[in-house]
Automatic annotation (TrEMBL), chains A, B:
Residues within the DNA-binding region(s): 52-71
Lineage: superkingdom: Bacteria
Family matches, as Pfam families: TetR_C_23, TetR_N
UniProt feature coiled coil, ranges: none
Organism: Embleya scabrispora
Region feature Disordered, mapped onto this chain: 1-31
Entry keywords, A to Z: DNA-binding
Annotated Basic and acidic residues bias: 15-30
Protein's name according to its UniProt entry: TetR family transcriptional regulator
Entries under PROSITE patterns matching the protein: HTH_TETR_1 (PS01081), HTH_TETR_2 (PS50977)
InterPro entries linked: DNA-bd_HTH_TetR-type_CS, Homeodomain-like_sf, HTH-type_TetR-like_transc_reg, HTH_TetR, Tet_transcr_reg_TetR-rel_C_sf, TetR_C_23
Length: 252, 252
């Protein structure tokens, strides 16, 4: 689908994919948003596997070619959804982190904001999770295709650390943002299967685990802990989140 | 389906569900085994969701009523499969543990044996995993229905610890078997998605993580670690593997 998404000839020339000076989204951005909303609704209603690009275009009131211009495939739609969720997560987290210095409080902010921005999509996530659980699926948060999103969220966790009063040394500072991202993935898994009203259990789980994470980090400064930190780093690189995962070409 | 599995009238009276004195399985045990083998083959060929009890009975050459006598539902068949796998895992592990005293070596034995006994079912596991990933599914290893199996494997891990030269105190000795079982669940997840030939990557993963587990246990004896151990224990009880999960009624 690369040839469709990447065709310059199909690119609207009005620059409409950027917000206009008044801050309102341009027409192109509106169309893109409409297709994404429609797709998410159809995925919820019919299931991800059974929803075709043709149906998404039809329900959005655009041509199939136009839908493919914005999203090269259904997988691109999911990545469009991930992008939006990530953007909201990061923007809101950065706002709420202002003036917060305690590491535990900062971590709590970022994890709680994730639960809040993801909440409207819970029903979809449950239905969709089967497709994203396989680490080799492009839809998995561990895939090469998800690298840009993973990188942004990891950078947010680096900020959580840097802006805190917690003292950590260089070796740990490099590994920790990724470990915190893995911790978030654990919370996502817990949340996907959480049947409590408005995911109260997930929120309690975050509140319970955050001080534990802080404690582990504090303990990891002890010298006796160091060989374990190094082993963990190598293990993560070799098996879980390979370093230098080639980011896929930028998507339109 | 309880009324079917539990109906005494349907119980063969020849005591055929126990091995005869010569050590060969009785006729009833043979039928049970045949139904289970057939079901596993059909699950592999047609998928778990699309395979009916009727089809399993038909392919096994038994009546539908007879199939239901041995396995009250498809879920009971999966538990029959879990039982068999667990029995083989435990029996072979106990044989290979004889004379091994080093904790790391003992852990390595138990995890490696699991990979060996599970290997023939890898293709099925991949297909089936979607049904077992939900912790509230009776097919999940975390469910109340899986309690008897979880308990047996946890007991095996208690043996791994007791028979080793590793010194651990009482508080930790109570929590550790369950943590080791959770570690095995992590390896199962890794294994399900492992595409390497004959799951070479999973075996390497076990070899890499075993010394790390040993290191964590050694470190956890330090006093400074204790509050974390207690938090972890409470977290596991409250959210992951609740204590006093009521075991379901014994299955025929």
């Amino acid at each position: 689908m690369e040839h469709v998404a990447g065709t310059d000839a199909a690119n609207p020339t009005d620059g409409g994919d950027r917000p206009d000076p008044g801050g309102r989204p341009g027409k192109s951005e509106q169309t893109r948003s409409l297709i994404l909303e429609t797709a998410l609704r159809l995925f919820r209603e019919r299931g991800y596997d059974k929803t075709t690009m043709r149906a998404i275009a039809q329900e959005s009131g655009v041509s199939v070619g136009n839908a493919y211009y914005y999203f090269g495939s259904k997988e691109h739609l999911i990545h469009g959804f991930y992008d939006r969720l990530t953007h909201e997560h990061i923007t809101r987290s950065r706002q709420e982190l202002r003036g917060v210095r305690d590491f535990g409080d900062r971590l709590q902010v970022v994890l709680s904001v994730w639960l809040e921005v993801a909440e409207p999509y819970h029903a979809f996530a449950v239905q969709f999770f089967r497709n994203a659980a396989d680490p080799e699926s492009p839809l998995s948060p561990f895939s090469a295709e998800s690298y840009p999103i993973r990188e942004q969220v990891t950078e947010l966790f680096a900020d959580v650390l840097r802006g805190s009063s917690l003292r950590i040394d260089d070796e740990l500072a490099e590994l920790l943002p990724e470990l915190l991202w893995l911790h978030l993935m654990g919370i996502v898994l817990f949340w996907v299967y959480d049947r409590s009203p408005e995911r109260a259990k997930s929120r309690a789980f975050v509140a319970r685990t955050t001080p534990m994470v802080e404690r582990v980090i504090t303990l990891s400064r002890y010298k006796v802990f160091r060989p374990l930190v190094r082993d963990a780093e190598r293990l993560i690189r070799d098996y879980i989140v390979p370093e230098g995962t080639t980011p896929p070409e930028q998507r339109g």
